[in-house]
Q: What sequence folds into this?
């Protein structure tokens, strides 16, 4: 009976969306970190990336795990559409850069960068720590405007809606931005 109760409560927690603290309108914490694209390490700067357009910043628990692999594949498939909208995609996890070099080639399909956050300083600044297992990031996606404001946030362990939702947020921002021009 106790085991059944734990399983039911665990299922409820997984089915219930969790919410990150950084909400639309908040200033996105700036960061610079080691990243990799197509297996080639480089230094990623949020401030530099924002100079070219919005940034889709997504946190994921660990490279090469089932949900993170699905999410990476979906972002890889959508990267050209994000680029056409002027957006940069970058994933962040606690994984070491050596592991991310492989992940960026195989699962990210050489399409977008992934960044190492070994000390979780970025994950903590974006309130994306997985509460049930704090050494990992929660699956949280942000869209950040070129002005450095968060324009969209979505947290759910299920990877299915992260790409669709962030794409819609970038498209909405783009439409509003073009109206104001």
A:
């Amino acid at each position: 009976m106790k085991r059944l109760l734990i399983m039911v409560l665990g299922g409820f927690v997984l089915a219930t969306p969790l919410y990150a603290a950084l909400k639309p309108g908040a200033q996105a914490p700036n960061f610079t970190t080691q990243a990799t694209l197509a297996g080639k390490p480089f230094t990623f700067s949020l401030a530099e990336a924002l100079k070219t357009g919005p940034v889709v910043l997504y946190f994921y628990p660990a490279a090469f795990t089932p949900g993170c692999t699905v999410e990476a594949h979906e972002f890889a498939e959508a990267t050209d559409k994000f680029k056409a909208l002027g957006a940069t995609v970058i994933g962040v996890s606690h994984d070491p850069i050596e592991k991310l070099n492989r992940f960026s080639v195989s699962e990210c399909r050489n399409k977008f960068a992934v960044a190492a956050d070994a000390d979780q300083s970025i994950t903590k600044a974006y309130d994306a720590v997985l509460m049930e297992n704090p050494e990992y990031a929660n699956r949280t996606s942000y869209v950040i405007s070129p002005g450095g404001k968060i324009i969209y946030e979505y947290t759910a362990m299920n990877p299915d809606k992260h790409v669709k939702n962030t794409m819609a947020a970038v498209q909405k921002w783009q439409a509003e931005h073009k109206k104001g021009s």
